[in-house]
Design brief:
single chain, about 350 residues, ten-stranded mixed sheet
Length: about 350
């Protein structure tokens, strides 16, 4: 009997070792060397990354391949696109281990189809040097951003294809209400706002403060945690962030992961979701993707504590309101803004 148990165990391990899970993510997904290998060491399961554009594009791809997915797990869906995925039944329900503690305010889906992994605040960032050199006041409000003094200075992401772009659209709705947000965007369009498809193109291409990008626009929709990234990656080293955050524009965005319907390995895919909430992965997200971990008790690195903006209040909208209006708002925005 003892030999039989050993053989069964070896057979199960061999089967597990033969599995490779595909993890579909947005292009901004980064993980430190060796982190995913920890999952493989613990389970024998390999992980193959598939990066498919911005978060909105990734979700759209998953919808188009529903039931026959190109991956087993999707990471990067956020609260702005969540209802679309749930309406399409993209994810299997998955129960997290009881020892994983998450702030209740960050739970995305009480049904367990999408588990929160990280969060960030989408805000307008500014290039400190640009404004200092011109003795131009840094804008403090949405209304400032559409004032003549800031004409042709702002770059944003397309809300139809970009999760931070959609979050910023929702921020204007939260700030001005259903009868005022479109007026703000009409004013922004008249004031020369530049629209690009995704965050990479906006921050690392058009933004003048994005490292050595050579961009010309000193205002960009990015994250409250972008300044510590500038400090962390600076060469030569710096002690002050060259970028700042317009905190009145911040909208809370929670990113999650789920097991895709149609996977051949639902149990193993669930293990990968659990791993994304492990201390090993959660302690890595701050300095790999410059977002905040959702697991309670995870310590933040000092550069994050020193330079990430922590707005006292953030803009929010109820999930039901986003679900009921998102597509109509995007359509209306598309008609308003000349790209």
């Amino acid at each position: 009997a003892g030999c039989g148990d050993t053989d069964d165990s070896q057979e199960e391990k061999a089967t597990s070792e033969a599995i490779t899970l595909r993890l579909l993510t947005h292009d901004s997904f980064v993980v430190s060397e060796g982190v995913l290998e920890t999952f493989t060491d613990e389970t024998g399961i390999e992980v193959e990354l598939i990066q498919g554009g911005d978060a909105g594009t990734v979700v759209n791809q998953a919808i188009l391949t529903k039931g026959n997915p190109q991956a087993d797990v999707l990471f990067g869906i956020d609260s702005t696109f969540l209802s679309r995925a749930l309406d399409e039944d993209l994810f299997l329900a998955h129960e997290l281990p009881a020892d994983i503690a998450i702030d209740a305010e960050l739970v995305l889906d009480p049904g367990g189809h999408v588990s929160p992994i990280d969060y960030g605040d989408v805000c307008v960032n500014y290039d400190e040097a640009y404004f200092a050199e011109r003795a131009l006041a840094v804008p403090q409000t949405f209304d400032d951003l559409v004032a003549p003094a800031y004409k042709d200075l702002l770059v944003v992401e397309n809300p139809a294809t970009s999760s931070p772009g959609l979050a910023f659209l929702l921020a204007t709705d939260a700030a001005f209400g259903p009868d005022g947000w479109s007026d703000w965007w009409a004013a922004a369009d008249a004031n020369g706002v530049l629209v690009v498809d995704g965050w990479e193109e906006a921050y690392n291409g058009a933004f003048s403060g994005g490292g050595a990008s050579g961009g010309t626009r000193p205002l960009v929709v990015s994250y409250a945690s972008s300044p510590p990234a500038e400090v962390f990656y600076a060469d030569p080293p710096i002690t002050e962030a060259p970028t700042g955050v317009v905190e009145s524009t911040c909208f809370r965005q929670v990113e999650g992961a789920g097991v895709l319907v149609g996977t051949d390995h639902p149990d193993e895919a669930g293990q990968l979701v659990d791993f994304l909430l492990s201390e090993a992965f959660q302690s890595d997200v701050a300095l790999s993707m410059f977002v905040f971990p959702v697991r309670t008790g995870v310590e933040l690195p000092q550069v994050f504590l020193d330079h990430a903006a922590r707005p006292a209040t953030v803009l929010r909208l109820p999930d039901a309101q986003i679900a009921a209006n998102r597509d109509a708002w995007i359509d209306e925005w598309t008609d308003l803004v000349q790209r």
